Structures are given as structure tokens and as C-alpha cells.
TrEMBL record:
One GO cellular component, as annotated: plasma membrane
Species this protein is from: Larimichthys crocea
SUPFAM superfamilies associated with the record: EGF/Laminin, GFP-like, Growth factor receptor domain, Thyroglobulin type-1 domain, YWTD domain
Disulfide bonds: C961-C968
Gene Ontology MF term list: calcium ion binding; Wnt receptor activity; Wnt-protein binding
LDL-receptor class B repeats: 1062-1104, 1105-1147, 1148-1192
Gene Ontology biological process: canonical Wnt signaling pathway; cell-matrix adhesion; epithelial cell differentiation
Domain Thyroglobulin type-1 stretches: 914-991
Record-linked InterPro entries: 6-blade_b-propeller_TolB-like (IPR011042), cEGF (IPR026823), Cueball_EGF_LRP_Nidogen (IPR050778), EGF (IPR000742), EGF-like_Ca-bd_dom (IPR001881), EGF-type_Asp/Asn_hydroxyl_site (IPR000152), EGF_Ca-bd_CS (IPR018097), G2_nidogen/fibulin_G2F (IPR006605)
Domain EGF-like: 735-776, 777-819, 824-867, 868-904
Name by which UniProt lists this protein: Nidogen-1
Amino acid sequence: MSPGSWSWFWLWSCVLSLSVLSRALELEELFEYGEEAGDQQLQPGSDSTAELPLVGTLYFFSESFDKVYINTNGFVAVADPPTEEQYLGKMPTSFKMIVALMGDLDNSDGQGKVYFRQDSSPDVLSRAAKHIRQAFPRDDGVEPKNTFIVTWENMAARGTSGRGDRLDTKRNTFQLVVASMDSSSCAILLYPRDGLQFFSTSVGGETKLLEGGFNEGIVEGWFWSSKQGTHFRTTTDEETSVRELTEKTNSGRSGVWVYEIGASPFFPAITPGMVSDLRDKEAATEPPVTMLPRQPDEQQEVDFTTYAPLFPTETPAEYQPSYPEAETITPTYAEPETQEPDEEELGQFEPEYPEYEIVTPMYTESAQPRYTSEPRYPDQTMTPYPDSEPLQPRYTTPETTEPRYIPLEPRYPDPDPVQPQYTNPEPVQPVPPHSRPHQPRVVVVDEDEDLNVDVFAYNTETCAHNRHKCSAFADCRDYSNGYCCHCRPGFYGNGKDCVAEGKPQRMNGKVNGRVFVGNSPSPVELGNHDLHSYVVANDGRAYVAISNIPDSLGPSLQPLSSLGGIIGWAFALEQPGYQNGFSLIGGVFSRQAEVIFQPGNERLNIRQQFKGIDEHDHLVVSTELEGRLPAVLLGSSVQINPYKEIYQYDRNLITSSSNRDYTVTTPEGNVESRTYQWRQTVTFQSCKHDEATSTAPSTQQLSVDQIFVMFDADNHLIRYAMSNKIGSVHTSLPEQNPCFTGRHGCDINAMCRPGEGLQFTCECSNGFTGDGRYCHDTDECRETPQVCGPNTFCSNQPGTFRCECLSGFVFASDGKTCIEENRPVDHCQRGSHDCDVPERALCSYTGGSAYVCSCLPGFEGDGRVCQDVDECQQDRCHRDAICSNTQGSYTCQCRSGFHGDGFQCSPTSSEREKTQCERHRESAQAATSSSSIFSFFRPRPAVGNYVPQCDEHGAYEPTQCHTSISQCWCVDANGQEIPNTRTGPGSTPLCINQVVTPPPVGPTPRPDVHPIAPGTHLLFAQSGKIEHIPLDGYNMKTEEAKPLLHIPDRVVIAVAYDCVEKMVYWTDITGPAISRASMSGGDINPVITTDLQSPEGIAIDHVARLLFWTDSMRDTVEVSKLDGSQRRVLFDTDLINPRPIVTNPAYGRLYWADWNRDGPKIEMSNMDGTDRTVLVKDDLGLPNGLTFDLDNQQLCWADAGTRKVECMDPHRRLRRQIVEGIQYPFGLVSFGRNLYYTDWRREAVVAVDRQSEKETEEFLPQKRSRLYGITTTPTQCPQAYNYCANNAGCSHLCLPRLGGFTCRCPDNAVPGQCEERNL
């Protein structure tokens, strides 16, 4: 065949391969199953198991078995498996299992079936052999002796059957065939098209992806010890890997996967099929070899993902490896062709082998390649390749054991310089045990002038197909072999993750694991403990906190500042010519560390997976701890000395090690010095295509000082803080420029630009504007209204923005375009729920297809069955009243001879006893002339006398006026004038009704919180209760508004919300008191009940965990911890009627308004009481409502005097009007682009769009009365940080201020036991 003909033949073979591959496995192409095939059937259920004795031998890993156990949940075990609670969601497990596709599956509804049988029929054996040969085309003698077949048909996810929400219609069908030869066994897994309709199940209340693979279980180790064996995964932690089981292959046919799973006498590994397409099968190439380092006592986990297609495609980001890559030997060969190549033509072809994800131990002292293999040439006369360095796995030392395959010396051309890459490196596969050596020959394809090269345009490794995989702040560039992402100027990272230079970074994640403390035989279990970190990028200061740490573990975790060390390295302050971790590798990487404590030799392993930046602009990390810590007594403090750590950089691998000294001071004052050794490995993927990519120095030094560690026993938090710099390992004079020391004074959202000597400039980060000393967020949504496209709305974020789909739309697969949503079922609206009848229960829709049933007041039960509560058995009525129970309620009626509402009954008299106000009014009216001829008329007051005004219940009206002198003032419940409230002619003061509204006749709800559905809500106060309105985006769902909390004997004024602990705080002026309750339900907890007179404003710093309030009778602004402890008066001078108060945690600022009639003002200070100043004093009337928008750094207020809502940038003093002509506003809150305020005259909650500067909607409560304070319950805390996030080492109060903090003592501190200082 001529070279030109061979070109055409090769081309059409490729095209034919693609066409064959495109045809998916159909359901009818599974191996025959069912009763007609002679199958047995597994008992219906959600965790059924059946034993199947085998005629032949099953070889699995290094052992042989004569029976297996079939289980409902999609796997086959070689021993009777435990209950599903012990393995679902907890892989790897202790027992051996072949996992076809495991999850919490169910076939108890009669639709699903699990069939199984042994089969040695010629047809089945022949078909199994065909699949194995297709997967291993170089293996001869594939002759199965027997098989067993398991088919899971129409399996449902447990808990979805019969739900009526269409989840019960999603069913999975798949099949496992295990074929055994004389000395080996292979598993054939078949996933037909449309056979997988769901990809996850609920396990323990959490959604877990289905998973596949092979688990070796517990195996024997050295010296009679045991260890976890290999866990070979065929799926990853991403849904795509499950979905692609039907679409890709390793055996030449989509949906068919073949693995050799064991051989005799010894075969410790799993070998996947080698044909990801038909071209591989035709070529019969020599397989490349994976070198897997493995420590004798260390668990090995291998995670193989799908094969690459014939022509290169982008490897999905979710298939990022978690551990070091093995090196790959991938020469290109083809089957015999006698033509000898010219040496310069050898580089024309790129090797194309399947890509895998390899998970191996992070750090090994003694390890060797699992297999080694080198190319074998057909004859010795062939032109040799130039010498090259032998390719060996880095950081491993070969063991003395013999390799299974004999290594040969490689001879290749000089390798290209190693370049970073995104896609998974092409690892080397193990040579299958049955493959015979072939004599490969190199084939040269001559160019044919008539060949249409467009036929080869299948390469999708270009920006045209992959631009969306780059960060929104990156550019995509095409190179000869692929594409790379590059962060734009003003941003840094690896191109797939980019963040603004100078911008603070936040990190969230979970901590899991088992840790032994001291000599304790029992571990402390960690399960999904929250980890939060904040880094001030422009000075390298990192803060880390882990929540819900028990006292038995917390003190001993203090020396482990290494948990936060990787975060400090990622965003360390860069010295000239050096780069921190995020600049080099971005936000997707794996880290494994080992800590050895001295002198006790305790060991702890740390595994962390950094998963990139989420939709909230936060870096996501998962952490696992395993091992033992030396014990530290509760109450001890730990001091860690500054240290330096050298980082060594190689291709996709970074290592470091160091020794660290620390001291432990016990509660008795004893000091003990200790040390620990530390070593870690970081693995990552970078882009290999950009030959010009700059690389970091091979060695860099991380310098860490100002290390702070503390276990907060009261809040069960472990806290770490440290300052980090990355620079040269060589000793030299430290950089003195403030940009490199971190002492520059630039805004936390700014970059420091060094100049000559000690000169520098501050420049706001991207997404912020200002002079660099102060930077405020740029509202991209307002400045570029069309930035998000159709069917979206723009949500401004600090330094950036987020596009969200409008209600009824969802993001398409590109993550950008919003398409119409196929909405789930609202069972409450449809009436397809199982709640009790509407007369007894309420069905509440909670999103998706979920809903909650709750009994109505007066009934009790689970919402599905509700029974009437007999309130008459609870002595609700007065002792002189008769109680009558009714369905859901009751009535109270005074007995004959008594009068009242049934809750209060008094003996009947000619007229009821007059109230204090009525007696006061009567005495004022009595001052009249009894001799007047008009004396038979009702007495009237003499001119000039003041007559009090009483309401219908006989109580004093809160506003009293004396018409003769044209003055009005406010009074308390006893009619006493409230100082500084008197007004002159033409104006009326804003007075709060201090009299408790009489309770209605009938049942009174319990004073506690009823749990509400997830999401953002508005909370507002209305006399004796707090109500909530759910928000749908920015729209009020008025039809779902209802009371959150009933306090019938209180007048609630101000409300605030703690987004961290999800608690609502409020003030009431009848106690007076400040109280709180959990939004998840429960009773009221008093916070402050003494030394209060009229608390009318309340605010929370959720970062520093502080509570602020105003008292308009005491004329004070005060602060305490959130539990009311450590109380301190900040201001008690130059205050007349202070009311609303708000915080700005990011800048340590406090704002409050004083509605003093003679001089209303809005003031500002630091939270420690310093830098008090008047912010606004002109054009104010009655500034009642005050709110602060953290995202946009805007202070807004509602004024009942000027009848306006206005906003101001408090940093630049820029003021603008939002709306005017409103009625009588009281409370105000900001949420996104909207402002919401309560109005006394309209008795409503009103929404205002700040962008359009128009009112958009209102809500009128069912019971009309004055509304007071208002706040929101955001689903996530606003991004903010201040120096008191961990109390900064203060003995008592830590009060933030701009650029620092102050340690302050409470007013009742014992002299000598509290230290005040400024930092």
C-alpha cells in the first residue's frame, strides 16, 4: 500500500471508529436476564442480601473466593455485608466489594428487581470473552470458564417511591458480569443508554453521588497489623463522572467497561480496559505504564475516570487529581509497516492514550513503581533515539522487592521542558498480565496534496470550545497543542481561578476525621465542623476558625497552627520576585501533611482538598484529620515561635518541611517547651501548552510570625492567626518598603504599589474605587445595567457582581444563559400533599418539591395528624369564669355576678373602676363653675387647664397636647412627661405607646419562636409580636406572612438578626429588656434586663460578636457581648433622644441617629468609642430609621420629619435622595437593591427600589396597628472582617476601630483583673 493510500485508510478508519463509538449501548443489548433466563430474584427491600455459591473460583485482588453476596444497593461482596449505615457514604469500607453503581437504592415498590445467576452456557461465555478481548486486544487465550451475572433493573432512590413529584419515575438499570478464567477474573460493567436517570441518593440526610469501583477492604500489614487496602474508583466526586458511564468506555463500546480484578498466584491491582475507541483496538499499541508509589502501611486509593476520546478534548475540571501524578511513557506505535522513518519525521505524531485520575499517597519515604516497562524495539539496527534521562517517579525510593515486569532502559529524544498543564497528564497504565510482547513499527504518513485537511478538524482543545472554563477575570489563549487561561491585569491566579489583587479573601469548608488525644483509647470524632478563614491579602495576615470543637479536643489543637499555614502560604505577602501559592497554582489543589510531635512521637495526618472558588467568591476546602495529638490541659495557653519554611517547586508538585517550637503554659503557670516536625506535599494541575509561562524560583521561603492561637471554650471555637511573607531562602536585609512589610495603611480592598526607597502608593482593587486609603465597592449592576443579559437580574457583590436568573428561569449548561425553568411541583398549591385538613393544619411550600406540615394554633401533632388541644385543662381562664373548649380554640366567659373578658373577671358594680388617666381627666374637668346655668351639661375645663387624653381602654394616649399653649409631648404609661419630647406650635412629637395592648378574648399563642422555612425573610415588630415575610428575590411573598413570635405582654421596638447563630434579638420598653431567640425554634432568652429604661435601637457586629443599643431615657449608647456580658457605656453625653443604631463591621464603625427636635443629627464613631463625629445635621427632621448596606458601603435613613428616604457614602460624605413624600416611617432595612421601611400612618411595610428610586410594593398586616423595627434574615453572612474576629487576645471586650482594635474593660470590671490597650 502506498503512503498516500495508507493516509486515506487511516483517516477513514478514524472516522469509522467515531461513528461506531457514537452508538450507545441499548437496553436490549444487555446480557439476557429475568425469569426466562433462569435468574434468581433478590428479596424486595432497601438493603437486602442474598448468598450465591460459585461453581468456579472468583479471583479478586490477591485472593480467591467460592461464593459472593448480592446486595440491593448496587454491589457484590465476597462476605456477608454489614447494614448499609456502615458503608453508604463512608467508602472505603472494611470489606471487599465490587461496586457496579452503589447508592441507597430501593425496589420494595414492586417495580424494581435484582436478578442474579451463574451461567456457563457457550453463548454467554463467548460474549463475555468478546468484551474482554475488545478491552485487552493484545491478550490471547481469553477463555472464560464460568460467569455470574447480576442485573439491577428499574431501581429507585430510596424515599422517592410514591412521592408524586416525578422523582419516583426516575429509575436506574445496569448490569455486572464477572467472568473467570483458569487463573484470573474480569468484571464487565454495562450501563445502557437511558439506563441511568438519577445520579445521587439521600444518605443520612445528605445528598451523595452514586459511586462505582472496587474495594479491597482491610488487609494485613506488617507485624500482624491491619490497614485499609486499595480503593479503586471508577467514578469521582462529580456528577459528570456518573453521567458519562453510559457515554464513554474503556472497551471500545460506549457504556461497556471491562476491568481485570484479580489473578493467581498474586495480582494486587485492578487493570482497566485499554481501548477508549476503536483506533486503540486496531493499533494494538504497547501500553504505557503507571508508576504508583505506595508505602507499606499506607492506604492506596486509585481513582480512574473515563478515557479520552479519539481526538483531544478538554478534560473536565472535576477530574482534577488529588495526589501526585505518575510520570508517563507514551511513544506512538502502530502495527507492522516495513518502511523505516526519517529521524526528523518522528515527531509528527502525538501519542493519544487514555487519561486517568490517579490517587496515590501524598508523601512516601519508601515507595516503588507498581509496574515498570519500557518500549521494546523490533530490531537493533533501527535508528536509536537520542539519550534522555530515565523517567522516574519523583520523591520515591525504590523498595527492594522485585518488580513484576523487568524494567528496560528507555531511549528517547531529549524531552521538552516541563510545562504546567490543566488537563490530566496521560499516566502510564499497568501492563495487563496476559498481554504478549509485540514488535511495534513506526509508521510514517506522507502528506497527500489532495488530502482535505479539514477532515481532521475535530480538535476541541481550543478557546472556542473552552473559554467558559476560564475565570470571568481571565483571557483564553490558543497555542499549538491546546489552550491556556491567563488572569487579566489587576488579577492573579492560574487562569481558571483569578482574584483581584489586594482584595481580602474568604475561605469556607468542613473538617472531618478522628483524633486521639494523649493516651485516650477513644478518638474524638469530627463530623462536618465549619471552617472559616479570612486573609487580608495586602498585609499577608490570615485568620482561621473551626467551630463546635469539644473541650476534650480544643486545647490540644492549639499547637496545630499548621491547619491555617497552607492558607497563609496561598495568600502570603509577596516579596520582590517571588509568588505566593495562589499566584502559582490557583485554588484547586490537594495537600497532605504529616505532623510528628516530640517528645511523645504522636503523629497526625492532615488531608485537605481545595476545590476552587464558588459562586459566592469564596475558596472552598475540605479537611480530614487522622491520628493522635499530645494532650494540652483545658485553660492552657500555647505560644508558637516565629518560623521559616522552605517550599520546593517541581512540575505539579510542591514539598516543604520544617521544625517548629512552641510552649504550653498550664492554668497553674507551669511552662513546658515542645516541638514538632512538619512535612507536606501539595499537588496541582497547571497548563502545559504555554511555553512562555514564567515559573517561580525552584525554592522559596515562607516566613511566619505574629502567630496567635486560642481555644475559646465558651463558644467551642479554635482560632489561629498569623502573618505570612513569601521570599528568598537566602539571608539578606529584609525589605523595608511598607508594601513588603505590610505596614502601609492602605485600605483592605487595595493594593500597595512600591516606589523608590520607602515610597509607595495605594491603589484600589478591581471592583472598588477610591484613593487607595479608602476604597468603596463599585456597583457594576448600576453602572452597567445590561451586564447580565436577558432573563437575569444583577446582584452586586463586594468587588464584583453576580448574575442570577429571574424567578421561573434557571442557568443553562453554559452557566451563563438563563432558560425557562421546568418548575418542580408545589404540592401545597396542587393539593397533593399529605398534611391534615386545612381546618387543622397548614402546608408550607419550602422550595423544590418539598413542603412542611404544621398544626394550626390550638392543635397539636406532626402536621399530618393534628388533634385539638383542650385549653380548658390548662386553666387559661380566670377562676371566676367558665371555659368552653372549641375545635382549635376556646372561650372564657365571666360567671354571673362578674364582668370582664373571661381572663380577668371582677365583681359586677354600677360602673367599672376608673383608670388613672380617667381619674386624672375627671379631676381636670371638675375645675368648672357649678353655678352656671349650663351646669346640667358635662363639665368642661376652665380655659388654660390641661386635660389628659385617654384611649378607649382608659390608658394615657402616648402623645399629649395642651391646645391652650399649642404644645405637645410624649408620656409614659403613668402619664409622666418624657424629657426632651415637648414640641412647639405646628408639630407633634413621635411618641411610642408604652401601654401594653390588652389581650384579645380567646387563646393567646405561646411566647416562643415557630421555625420558619429556609431563605431570606423580613422581620418586623408590631406591638406584642414579631412577624416575618418571606422574600422571593426582592419581592415580598405577602400571602405567606405570619407571626414569628408572640409576646403579648411586651411592646417590641427594635429588632436585629445575628446571621452567624441565626438568632433574632429585640428590645422591649415595657420590661424593659433586650432578649433573643433562635430562628430554628425555642424559648425566649433574656440578654439584658437591668439598668434599662427605654431601649429603642439595637445593632449587632456579627464578626466581633458584639451587641450595641441606645436608650432614649438614659440617653446612652452602650455595648456588650452578644450574651449581655461585659457591658460598657460608650457615650452618655450630648444625647437627647437616641434611637436607631447600625454597625459597619468591615471598618469597625458605629452609626446612630438622635431625633432631638431642637437639633436632630446622625453621628458616627469607631466601635471603641473613639473618633466620634456628627455625620449629618442639615435638612433632618425625625430620623427614625437607619440602615447600613455593607456591600455598597451606604448609610441610609428614613426621616418622618422631612418625609424622605436618603442615602450617603459615609466615607466621602456623598448624599443622595432616594424617595420623598412618604408618610411616617419608623424602621428601615437594606437588602440588595431594595430598602424596606415600616410606616406608622400606613401601618404597612413598604419596599423601595434604590435604583429606580420608586416604591415597588407594600404589605398590610392582617391586624392593623403601628409597626416598629424591621430587619432581614440573610441566608449567608455579609462578607466582612475586623480585627476582633477572634477577640484579638483581649482579656475582656475587643472593640474594633478603623485599622485596628482596642481592648476595653466592662464597667463592672474588678480592678487589676482587666487590661486595656490599643492596637
